[in-house]
TrEMBL record:
Keywords: Glycosyltransferase, Transferase
Name used for this protein in its record: Lipopolysaccharide heptosyltransferase family protein
Top-level taxon in the UniProt lineage: Bacteria
One of the protein's GO biological processes: lipopolysaccharide core region biosynthetic process
Length: 393
């Protein structure tokens, strides 16, 4: 691991970065909106005459990438005459493989040290001569800068602190994160499903089936991902206790690791019993394909949680902070548990107490309001938090 990567992933540095970012944003928001004009409410007229559109969301978080990707599907399926480009990041580019995009423009962290590459990216964007640039998500100053520097004839963003800086303004940020794309698609007259989007090819699924078959477990083991970001992370002793509980109950399970959890591999391998297996870190595409094979995924509030929701895989979301409730999946077979103990999770996984896991139905192709999405979430599951058996994550 390089020194820069170590510093970027260090818990204290992440918290410091967030505090500095909030302070800088507050000052910039005031400066940017001081003399700005009021944008028009977005409508189907916004797309009139648009031949080429750029969606802008250069976010390095996996969850944010797949949440915003649903707008790609809404636009390309219902307005196929429009050529669609996407500005994302190099670390999340693999998530957009096989999506109907004309061009994927990639932002990299290394561009801070190599500004000539950033300049080339801006030149490339301006050469595309976009009719409309859309900021997917409200509050990112990086996205805002690219929306206004890409040379698009018109701009669009969400209602919020920067709404006066756009030509067209969509709806405000939703209460539930999975409805983000709907707040932009609905005003444009597009139907949109309120959940993330991710595609896995038939070939990738076949390869994932072979990976799981080589583990010599009974069919359909559950998946367990142990990662997490800052306070959303659950401590290792919790997972070790959960694996012991599952093995004692004879529940087949597969533990998945991301790059940041690779250092815990040996401890987890020593914890596994006869009914558990571990898969080391793998490429993002291979990881998504393996996820698609599980009947259920157990995970904290992480990028893989949103990937599973996008693939229609029922999720048991183990939340460590109340704010994660706005990001947890709300599908009919999903279950949200707030700071549970390992025995409770194992009991729910091995007894007939979970929502029925079935083929993910196609949601009605209508754009749901944020209030409607939030109303489907059972917040009663959050009202009785108890002490985390392994300490706060």
């Amino acid at each position: 691991m390089s020194p820069l990567t170590y510093l970027r992933r260090h818990r204290a540095m992440r918290k410091l970065g967030k505090r500095l970012e909030r302070g800088a944003k507050a000052w910039l928001y005031r400066a940017l909106t001081k003399h700005a004009r009021a944008g028009r409410p977005a409508s189907p007229e916004t797309l009139q005459g648009a031949r080429r559109i750029l969606l802008v969301r250069p976010n390095f978080r996996i969850g944010n990438a797949v949440i915003g990707a649903r707008l790609i599907q809404a636009l390309t399926q219902q307005r196929p005459e429009i050529e669609l480009d996407y500005l994302g990041t190099d670390t999340t580019q693999a998530l957009f493989v096989d999506m109907p995009l004309a061009h994927y423009h990639s932002l990299s962290r290394s561009m801070v040290l190599r500004p000539w590459r950033l300049w080339r990216l801006l030149v490339e964007l301006r050469r595309r001569e976009y009719d409309l640039a859309v900021q997917v998500g409200e509050g990112s100053l990086t996205s805002w800068l690219f929306v206004h520097l890409c040379g698009a004839r018109q701009t669009m963003g969400q209602r919020g602190r920067l709404q006066t800086t756009y030509d067209w303004v969509g709806e405000a940020s939703p209460q539930h994160a999975h409805a983000l794309a709907c707040t932009l698609a609905t005003p444009l007259g597009l139907a949109c499903e309120p959940r993330p989007w991710l595609t896995v090819s038939h070939r990738e699924r076949i390869a994932a089936e072979a990976v799981l078959a080589a583990l010599s477990l009974p069919p359909a083991p559950i998946g367990i991902f142990i990662g997490g970001h800052l306070d959303k992370r659950i401590p290792l002793p919790f997972w070790q206790a959960l694996l012991h509980e599952l093995d004692a109950r004879g529940q087949p399970h597969v533990v998945l690791l991301g790059p940041e959890e690779a250092s815990q591999r040996r401890q987890l391998e020593h914890t596994l019993g006869a009914h558990g297996r571990l898969l080391p870190p793998m490429s993002l595409r291979a990881f998504a394909a393996v996820l698609s094979q599980f009947p259920r995924l157990v995970t904290p509030d992480t990028g893989p949680m949103h990937m599973a929701a996008a693939l229609g895989i029922p999720v048991v979301a183990l939340l460590n902070v109340p704010g994660s409730g706005n990001f947890a999946p709300v599908g009919p077979a999903d279950l949200v548990l707030f700071q549970p103990d390992p025995a409770e999770v194992a009991e729910r996984l091995t007894k007939d107490t979970l929502p029925r896991a079935c083929a993910m139905p196609r949601l009605p192709r209508v754009a749901a309001k944020a209030e409607q999405v939030a109303a489907t979430h059972d917040h009663r599951r959050f009202v009785d938090p108890h002490a985390h058996p392994a300490g706060r994550g």
